[in-house]
Design brief:
Blueprint lengths: L10 E6 L5 E7 L10 H16 L8 E9 L2 E2 L6 H4 E13 L4 E10 L2 E12 L2 E10 L9 H4 L22 H17 L13 E9 L2 E2 L21 H7 L5 E13 L4 E10 L4 E3 L5 E3 L7 E12 L2 E8 L2 E2 L15
Parallel strand pairs: 3-8, 9-16
Antiparallel strand pairs: 1-2, 3-4, 5-6, 6-7, 7-8, 9-10, 11-12, 12-15, 13-14, 15-16, 15-17
Length: 339
């Protein structure tokens, strides 16, 4: 559905959610975005935003006078940075909508300097205008596993399971979904193989799969003739990785935020910062020693992670995460207390 600018003379009230999100409910709408901006409206707003970026012209966007804009957690003016160098849209686009709280997010590809790059984008709407734009870019050479070219292949789409509509009566409560997503980060940070609260379990389905920067980091086929006892973390599924204590290289996961919950599709959109590189050798939960090659310098990853949750368990994970300075402090408020 194409996006149209519409002015409404209805009323809404601003209510603050526990996670710091704001939703509209009873003040006069002051902007051109419909007060009751539904999923189609939010998806159309993403298209309008991307078109403005590749046209290098933000002037036609319904921006708030005090809009906050960041690129990889650096605050700057709208129209600066990637706005000046974007060449064209890419082929991949995965949109997540949260109409209740006036937020929409995207993982997708664009082109810059003749090559595809990955983008994570979040837009927040209040009183009919865009008040927050959080953009994160992963570019070639950005560190870690990646396969941007695979995502950018014409016709490539996310698996259909991401778009199944969950009947309202079967949807989990917002805070329950956020707790499941946060358990992922807590389990990875503890990395003791003992599960959530020492129960020995983690919130994963048996077929959980994860894609990071376009590259599978779970369930990869082992190379031919690789001995079966070789430590190959990427050949494992999500649950096996966590039970093995494979991620001791990640020392801290902080500034966790969960601004978008796509309740209809069962998705939590999160942001966090992973600190790593100060420890690269350790002992796995089964007693074996292991060393991560190359993780010998302090660095961090600015992570956007989307979790597809089915019946209380994480089934799919999609991530965009460029390298950033060690222990980056995010300018965005609203992280969970203590993280």
């Amino acid at each position: 559905m194409p996006f149209r600018l519409v002015a409404f003379g209805v009323f809404a009230l601003v209510a603050v959610a526990p996670t710091g999100s704001v939703r509209l409910a009873a003040h006069a709408s002051t902007g051109p975005i419909p007060l009751n901006c539904n999923r189609a409206c939010l998806e159309g707003l993403v298209d309008q935003y991307l078109a403005a970026v590749v046209a290098h012209d933000p002037n036609g966007l319904p921006l708030s006078a005090d809009v906050r804009y960041t690129e990889n957690d650096q605050v700057m003016g709208v129209g600066d940075g990637f706005w000046k160098t974007a060449e064209s849209l890419g082929n991949y686009k995965h949109v997540f909508a949260d109409p209740e709280f006036g937020q929409v997010a995207l993982m997708g590809t664009l082109r810059e300097a003749g090559a595809p790059i990955l983008m994570s984008l979040r837009l927040r709407i209040e009183l009919g205008r865009i008040t927050e734009i959080e953009s994160i870019y992963f570019k070639p050479g950005g560190g870690g596993p990646n396969n941007i070219a695979a995502l950018d292949q014409p016709g490539y789409k996310p698996e259909e399971m991401w778009f199944r509509s969950i009947p309202p009566a079967e949807r989990l409560a917002r805070q329950e979904m956020i707790s499941i997503a946060d358990a992922y980060f807590s389990g990875l940070e503890k990395n003791d193989g003992k599960g959530v609260n020492g129960t020995g379990t983690y919130p994963f389905t048996n077929d959980c799969d994860r894609i990071e920067n376009g590259s599978h980091t779970t369930n990869r086929p082992r190379p031919p003739n690789e001995p079966p006892d070789t430590i190959n973390g990427f050949a494992l599924d999500c649950l096996a990785q966590f039970r093995l204590g494979y991620y001791f290289v990640v020392q801290s996961i902080h500034h966790r935020r969960y601004p978008v919950v796509d309740a209809e599709h069962g998705v939590v959109w999160s942001h966090a910062i992973f600190d790593q590189g100060t420890v690269n050798s350790g002992t796995l939960s089964d007693g074996r020693k292991y060393t991560f090659r190359g993780f010998n310098r302090p660095s961090s990853i600015l992570v956007t992670e989307a979790f597809l949750i089915e019946k209380g368990k994480i089934r799919r994970v999609e991530m965009v995460g460029p390298s950033v300075p060690y222990h980056l402090n995010s300018p965005w408020p609203g992280s969970l207390s203590g993280n």
